[in-house]
Amino acid sequence: MGGPVEPFKIKMVERVKLPDQEQRTEAIKKACYNTFLLNSEDIYIDLLTDSGTSAMSDNQWAGLMLGDEAYAGSRNFYNLEQSIQEVLGYRYVIPTHQGRGAEHIISRVLIKPGKNIVPRNMYFTTSKAHVELLGGEMPDVIIDQAHDPENEHPFKGNIDLDKLERVIKEKGTERIAYVNVEMNVNMAGGQPVSMENLRGVRELCNSYNLKVVFDATRSSENAYFIKEREKGYCDRSIKEILNEMMSYSDACIYSAKKDCLVNIGGFLAANDKEIYKKARNLVVVYEGLHTYGGMAGRDMEALSHGLREGTDARYLEYRIKQVRYLGEMLMEYNVPIVKPIGSHGIFLDALRFFPHIPRELWPSQTLAAAIYEESAVRTMERGAVSKGRDPRTGKNIFPALELVRVTIPRRVYTNTQMEYVAESIKKVYEKRDQIKGLRMVYEPKDLRFFQAEFEKIE
User: Fold this and answer.
1) What number is the average pLDDT over the span 223-233?
2) Structure pTM?
3) Is 298 a domain residue?
4) Is 318 marked active-site?
5) Most buried of 66, 114, 167, 270 (most Cβ within 10 A)?
6) Which PANTHER family does the protein's record reference (predicted)?
């Protein structure tokens, strides 16, 4: 038997084409070997991201027709508010155009001059940028196992409580803006956080009177791992697990373009009334009125349906198992990946894939470009290009993990397509010694991985 059985049937298809070798070589050269700069029409299977790339359900599409596009007081906002209160347990809800908008608002609410340290379980690119643009720092307090791609700790996203307390004591409580905890840590390979760890973070922060803000973007998938791996949760529903998870925070930021199965949208939710009041004020300045926050009414309606659908245990089982199906095929081919297999994609270990390519020649960027040229499968770099430069010294930062993310959109691709992806990556691995690396020829100031340009080392 092949991959996991889909708990849905397909009602519409989109035709895709496979460019030939000459077309692929020309396309990646024109994109300056940055997969973000490729045109979507040149892609056969698009695994760049799971953000906004999901297939919506019939109920979500029907919900679009119920859009109330009133500027103020849209009924779709109240449906969304009720959905978030039910699924996540937060009292207060502020919609934003996407997760980045929520990151911006929470940063402006909580980061002040002299109160600008945000400890987090490994950085994420946009989260780190919002903190640094306000003069802040984001110390990494994830457990050491997360930096080892071979380590199979079941909750590699956990915060190291000793590291966190050390940062608090060294920097001083008065300088800690908030503690940020990401679910299913993206840059670590989609690795979950345990309920025990969330509880421990809350207790530690209570003892120092510190705020806790979750990046809950992939919290439903994180809840599935808790149900699967953590003692005492196998008989609990995903919603019950989510409600307990969120109870250990003061607020959360959420990109709805992942677990909520929509193409656009996000929100900031809170139990802390002061955070809510300040954020509600700022959302009007930067996003839109507090009852739409940059989203159309129809998008809020689709989001409210998708948040509930994303907690269905049968769907989540299929979702996680499809990712594992791809990962297990790659392991059979001896392709080096991050273990254990995470939630939203497979993360290729570029340092073991290309041990002969120096870090200065961008092995992850090289691998993503090579996969496209081989197969028209688009993936993305998650290594030193994404990490950027030290804001104080200007030097490149070379993180322990140098990865390529092979991200699987939700309810979009078949298991047969996953087999094509695995075969394609295997072919690149078999000729890895012939690939030499890339030179960066254009570097944007912020979030350089989106727009940086490269050329081949010949």
Assistant:
1) 98
2) 0.95
3) yes
4) no
5) 270
6) BETA-ELIMINATING LYASE-LIKE PROTEIN-RELATED, TRYPTOPHANASE
